[in-house]
Structure formats: structure tokens, C-alpha cells
Amino acid sequence: MSTDEKSLEQVLWDSANVMRQTMGAADYMNYALGLIFYKHLSDKTLEAAANALVDAGEVEAQDVATEEARQGVYKKYYDAEEFHEDLLETMNMDYEIKPDFTFAALMDSIRKQTFQLENLNQAFRDIEQSNPDLLGHLFDDVDLYSTKLGSTPQKRNDMIAQVMTALAPLNLDSHSGDVLGDAYEYLIGTFASDMGQKAGEFYTPQSVSQLLTHIVTWGQEAKKGFSAYDPACGAGGFLVATVKYWNQQNVEFTKNNLYGVDKDGYLTRLAKVHLACMGQSTKTIQCSDSLVWDENVLGKKDSQYDVVLTNPPFGVNIQAGTPETLSKFDLAYKYKKMKDGSSIKTDNINESVAPQVVFMEQCVKLVKAGGKIGIVVPESMISNKKYSYVVEFILKQCYIRVIIGMPDELFKTSGKGGTHTKTCLLVLEKKKFEDNKDYKIFMAEAKWCGHDSRGREIPKDDIPDILDKYFKFLKKEKFDDSNLGFVLNKNQIVNNVLAPRSYVFGIQNNKDLEKTHTMITIGQLINEKVLEVKTGNEVGKLAYGTGSIPFVRTSDISNWEIKSDPKHLLNEEIYKSLATKQDVQEGDILMVKDGSYLIGTCAMITKHDTKIVYQSHLYKIRVAKNNKLKLQVQIEHL
Length: 638
Description:
By secondary structure, the protein is an alpha/beta fold. The radius of gyration is 30 Å and the shape is elongated. Helix 1 runs antiparallel to helix 8 (about 155-165) and helix 11 (about 205-215) crosses helix 12. It folds into three domains: about 10-175, Up-down Bundle (Ferritin), CATH 1.20.1260.30; about 185-515, 3-Layer(aba) Sandwich (Rossmann fold); about 525-625, Adenine-n6-DNA-methyltransferase TaqI, Chain A, domain 2. About 40% of the residues are buried. The longest helix is centred in the first third of the chain and has 31 residues, at about 25-55. Helices cover about 35% and strands about 15% of the residues. The termini are far apart.
């Protein structure tokens, strides 16, 4: 790496090292991103001026080969009254930066030790005022007069000069990706542990936004007035991915047809900066609550958009809305399970409803009939029986086109940052009218996503192979079924479970086994009374440590065995109160019945394990006596 040109990562690291001694990570991310955006606009200005003057025959290409030369030529012709108007018209920029306020000009003053913070502040204000609709308030988070930069004006001046010097070697022209998105992703990944919960909540990896955008928007390139919306846009990842995909297809995206809303003012401004880098209008990016939906701010709602792409906030600790807000959503009410397995809505609002559930309904409301939805959801929302009513809603309102299970590491940004929440990517098509026809669903289960559990980049990434198989599926080309792509009919969905990993094992193994075996599910064996299944009990934390009898939890089961040193022990009285009910016998199987990581993990009960109490998150499975298949448990003691 030359001293004159450094990678984005190295430049960001250098600039962060300048600031991190005096402020938190969230603050220096504001300064770093704001200054990178300013440099990006400035460099584009010099490049556009150089190209315009070369094309006009005023200068030769070799006369503008360096940044210093481009800066000199731009100032000369901008200041010349006879060239000024023609130059700006030919440059055809959406904003204007005066020659004295470009990044290159201020760097020259830094080297000459004449730099004044007020000049940078004036540059920011001029840029914003040159196109308020596109760039208004975009530098609000870059507070050049904050005492976090230094206790005196001179210290603040010196701090920003050092940061700009650290950023100066960055060649934005040589950076092949989305520079602002890559910078945001690097800063989140590197400093997430310093930034707190905010980083993990709002970060969507570019690989995910690009994958979903590609699938959802494919085939709509020629659609006149195509519109895309994100009701939880964060830093604008999905909206930027949409523009990038359109650019790759050599199709110009209508500037006012990208819509985004987020409650977080900082992230909304960052999304505007992000889109402005792509030359997009930011008028349709709003700081508001998309669940409340203030029509005075956001306009009409129902069935307005061709596609909706989003990664909504999810988690039990996030409030979805007030009772008044929740009352507008069917999925925000409590549901009652019927004997036939279906769910019916009650009149009681579920004030603790998970936000992702309400966002799912909002997305369906927003998209046009026949339109597509691409959404990131926790796997539990489409696999846990607690959310069975949500899956019923999805199946009633939409055709499920794609479900991709993602690895646990997807949202890990560092060792401490991010979350291990298991997620899935859903692609839905809103029905034009209700029907119950069967159809094919493309499913996949990714094991690798390009980074490990500490957020570090690795060479293993299943996403390209999944996308390749998906397009073979669309084109009706043959492909080998595997976890990276297989097809399931809608009528094969069992118990409203949509998680691909619930089906991938059968897809991979059933074809060969069906040649020699009769395939039967555990559910069928239970229904036919070949197997007996019971669940355990909870005893409460106060019971822990009161005796010597193991209380077996999901974490105590591994490799078909119960760990020999369970952490929680109960007294004899509690054991006797549950022993008859639990009836643990040698030959029984304990299986983890829910959760993200251990679900399906089993242990065989030996003669040494019968005096235990097992928790409610475990099934106890036993072969029934006198069953019709005449199955018996045979135990050999060594």
C-alpha cells in the first residue's frame, strides 16, 4: 500500500485513532461518515469540472491528472466570469461547492497551517443550501463546535485538521463498492462493542440487502414509475441496494420513487446522506413512526408501492407501539388456538406483541396487490407455535415465493457487537384475491455468510450459490437439491412451520431412502400411538441448589447424553412431588423442543439418569407398550 493512497479500512482506522481518545464510537462515526461524504462530494466536483473542461477542449487530460491540478483548474475557470456559468451548466451537478471550500482546498490550508474550522462549516452550509431538497440538514450530526473535539477553539481546529489529514489518502474513485455503506459497515463491525445496543439494532449487512433486493426487484426493470419502500429504513441499506441494482441493469431509477421511514433521526439523516451519494432525492426519506403513520407527513398508505424491502426491529424488549397504534393491526391482538389447529382473533390487544409481527402486517398493507415484499425476520416468527397465527396471516394474504434461512453469525458485527439471533429472509407476493391453491416455494438454508461469529471476513459464503440456484428455479432449469436450494410445495408445510432447516434434511436424504424405506414422521408415530410424548416442568430459581437431584435443562443435553455435572440441583421433596408425573425410565429420550441453537438435541436416559427432574423445554419420548408396529426398547448393559 502506498503512502499516498490507502484502503478505506486503513483510513477509517487512522481517523478513528485520532478521535477515539476524546469521544465515544457513535460520535466519531458521525464525524468520519460526514467528512467522507464531504470528500466524496468534493472529489466528484473536481472530477466533473475536469471532464467538462477536457471535453470542451479548454485543457488536456494530462493537465488534470492529479488532484492538485484538478483543484487549480476548477478554481481558475470557476472564478473566471466568462466561463463560470457554462462550466456549472456543463458539470450538471445536483449541488455546488465553491473552489475555496473543496476538501482539496482545505487540505492545502491544513498543510500551510492556515486552516480555520469556520471554512469547513461554511462548506457544509453551502452544500446544504445549494440543494435543500437533496442535501438539507445532512451535516447536522457533524458538530464542529462540540467540546468533544477539544476544550478550546484551537484544539477543535487541530482535531478536525488531524481527522481530515487521516482521510486525505482515501481514493474514492478506486473504491469499487458503496463507499458510505462500506464505511458504515466497517465502523459498526470494528467498534460495535463500544457503541452499545444501537449498532446491533439497526445494522443490515450489505450482502443481505443486495440478495433480497436482487430477488424482489428482478424482472421489474422496465416497469414505469416503479416504487420501493422501507418502513424501517435505518441507514438506507435496502434503498441504496435498489439503486445499485438498477444501475447494474443500466436503468435509471426515478429519483422521487424511493421511500424510507425511520423513527431514529440520526439514522434518517444517514440514509439521506447515503442516497445523496447515489444522486437520489432525499425528499421521500422521513423521520417518523411508520406504524403510527401520520398521513400529514407520510401521505396515503394502503397498496401504494411496487415493492417493500425491510429489516424491521425485533426483540422482546422493544415496544411495538401504544394500545391506540396497535389497535389498527389484526396481528397485534391476542389469538386463541382452536381444536382444528387454526387461530382466531380475540378482542384483546396484545400490548407486548413483538414489533416484527406488526411490521409484517404493515408491509402487507403498504404493497400493491401483486407486489413483492422482502423482509428479514427472526426464524422463531415463522417456526414457533406461539406465532402460528402470523404464518396463517401470511399464507392467507400472500404467496410465499422464497424463504432463506441465514446462519447465526449474520448479525454479528464483532466479538461483542451484534446478535446471534437466527433469522430468515422472506420474499412474499401479495395476493390479488384470496385463494388456497398449491404452489412451489424456493427454500435454502445458508451455513456461511462471508464472516464468522466475531464479524471477521472469511472466504466461505453461501449467498452467491443460493442466488444462482434461485434463478435456475425461476428459469425452470435443473439443479441438485441441497441446503443451498430446494423446492417445497405450499401444501407440504407442516404445522405452520416455514423455517427451511425444518425441511432441508428430508429433502437431502429422502430421495435415496425412499427407494428402500417407507418414510414416516415422528408426528405420525405419535398420532398412531407408537410413541408417547410428554413435556417437563419448571421449578423456579428458588429451588436451585437446595439438594442433590439434577434439574435437567436444555444446556445439560449434549451428544445423546445428559451432562454428568448439571448446574442446578433440587431437593428430595421437589423430586417426589414430580416423580410420578414425569415418570422417567431407562430407555426414554429427552429432546430439546424449542430455542434457536439446541432444538432437536437429544439424550438417551440410562439407568443412572432416572432420578432427575427435566424442564418444560424438553420432550420426553417413549416407545409405547403394545404398539401396532410391535416396536420395543432393547437395552444392553456393558
